[in-house]
Amino acid sequence: MTVRTRRVWRVASSTLAGVWVFVVVAGLGVPTLAVLAYLTSGDVAISVFLVVLAAAAVVYGWRFGLYPRLIATAEGIETVNPGRRVKIGWDELTVIAPGENGLVLGTEEARTEVWCIQKSRSAMKRGRTTRADRIVAELESLQDRFDPPLEDDETGLRIRRARQSECDLLTQLERSANEASFARVVDSTVHGYPTEDARRRWRRLLRDRRVHVRVLEEFREPVGLVAWDGRGQLRQLAVSPRYANHGYGSLLLQFVTEELIAAGPAELWLWVLEDDLPARGFYRSRGWRDTEERSDSAYPPHPVEIKMVRTNPSAPRRRA
Q1: Claim to verify: residue 276 and residue 175 sit in the same structural domain
Q2: Looking at the domain assignment, is residue 246 inside a domain?
């Protein structure tokens, strides 16, 4: 059986039908009016103007309605917009997300939009699933197929990319992992876990092309998560309490540390609640160290965080 490795998307069927009607009317109807105008009045200028207008309308309809497309192959994605073509390899792609002006595709270096696949502002506000969301899910599956996640068949462990539809999953994993430590730092009877703040944060991070988010699974069951960016910041690491003390936190930290080191910054860094001594001890035992920098947490009631760092042994050394 032949496996299809090339997919092409254009504008939605209803839009495509409208564009064809516009092109046919402009290409046939307006020239007909030009001929009638010439036969009726004998005015060549009006007829020429109408013919030029028809040609411009046809070109416009083709260029902005029929021409834009998105092509996916085994090598990557190609965006075809009027005046610009962009190719991105699957291993470079960091973001695939719906957008008002077009499907958002991003790498750490650049961002582009696919004009032929859009999601309206009202649909985004209401959280309604549209054609754009379905295409995003299909592209995410293709990316996993052509640039597979890390997987160990013996242990059933897999580290895969987080998907745009998994904001609630990430929030749940973060909350279950951090609720106990958060309660140790603040009065949980007054300040419950900031779930909505966390959800908004994940929604933003999933659309940030410079941020990488991964989910750890055991036999397809979500176990934990990790998020980082290319500047050297470990943004989040969490393991579900159900899987605590199984070495999964150490596994994720080792994975993300290798990714951060490979990115090349001179120093790796993270923020952790200053009073969360178990978390600070976990990082210290794996090569991270405290600094003098402190900051208020983004979550209410804004407990103090401390910055921890680790030197990148692979970073170029400055000459004295």
Answers
A1: yes
A2: yes
